[in-house]
Amino acid sequence: MPPRWPRKPDRRDPAYRRLGDRINFALHVAFFAAINSGAWFFQEFLEKDWHWLPWFSGAWLLLILSHGIYIFALADYDGGIAE
Fold it and tell me: Do residues 16 and 3 make contact, with C-beta atoms less than 8 angstroms apart?
């Protein structure tokens, strides 16, 4: 069941922005998991040694972690939105 919003959606609403950012973060984590697990699977399946794969996964993981820190710890949803 999709999330329901009790009032008209408005990007200036802090609770709506918080929910949207968390859904966006969850989508990014899902893409990270799907693409990285697929890349590691195909590396093993094809018996190749992709030297770039640990760097790719590590860099993307750092981006995901920094995104999560911003969303869950640093974001100020009570302030105004820049338009």
Answer: no
